[in-house]
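Schema walk-through. Below, the input block comes first and the output block second. Nothing else is stored per chain. Lengths vary across the set, and this one has 324 residues.
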Amino acid sequence: MEHNSRTSLTRRGLLRTATGVGLAAFGVGYGAASAAASVGASSRFDLSQPSYDLFRDKNLHSNRVQQSFAFDSVNKRLFVAAKRLDSPESAGDLCISQLDFAGNYVSYMHLNGFGHGVAFGVRPVGSTSNLWIETDANGNGYGTKLAFIGYNPGTTVDAASQGFGKFQPISGATEYTCSIDPVYNRMIVRYHKDGAKHIAVYDLADTDRGDFSSPVAMFTPPAIAGTPQGYTLYGSYMYFITGDGYSASNPDPGNTYITSININTGAIAQGPTLTKAGSTLVYREPEGLAIYRTDAGESRLFLGFASGDEGDRRSSIFYKNALV
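--- output ---
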């Protein structure tokens, strides 16, 4: 397990770094993961049921297409990842915008050389929102490690910095992204190895210690047609979104589909199911999935879309709440 040595233990067993709160590494090696145990069956979202608006056409700090988003459910914050303005795709330069839940812009942070931003998670520690996000972008702009870095408004951090934790959970993997299930307290990691994408799921009790040695599920997801645009985890189901922006060849209602996958079997549970959420948006490219539970206890599957005209792209987010 790669980790930053410029750190000191806190009373909670976490490492505090120059950029916020990092993770303690416990001598976990790069070896192959252990055999996965079965994850208890949970309810799943019914993808055929309607979607509802959180907000539409909200400004980000970067006017480029959003890539993904994630919630800090403790501190009530929403973070949206987009590429930095005037930065090439291959550089992996990200702009993270913090919004409130009405979509109002709050602040930004730049992460240079981190990756593409297909998916990420937020792990709060006290009042600090910590991002679990890809880092150390390769020549194609995709991250080769996972980073644990505190969100620090108005700052710029380079991937080469030693001020935050970096991890490579799977031996031989070349790319990583992740998402967090804040309801069942698990992390899902999507990684590239042996020419294909694979999935590993971990308990947050382990990843909070920087321990990726004991995944609770591992599988290779089934082939799903369409452009991959994000994924997340809720209970014993992974959710995967595909599609493209509106165009002459892809008019309203578009080609955005959502699929649920049983993480115990690796088999499709529902879908691909066409979603018409935000069908009247301008441009409307699917970008990201995330989970949030309201204070009233309602679990929601959120769907993100990039909207707006070229040069003035906006963020639009919707949700589904019907469970079966």
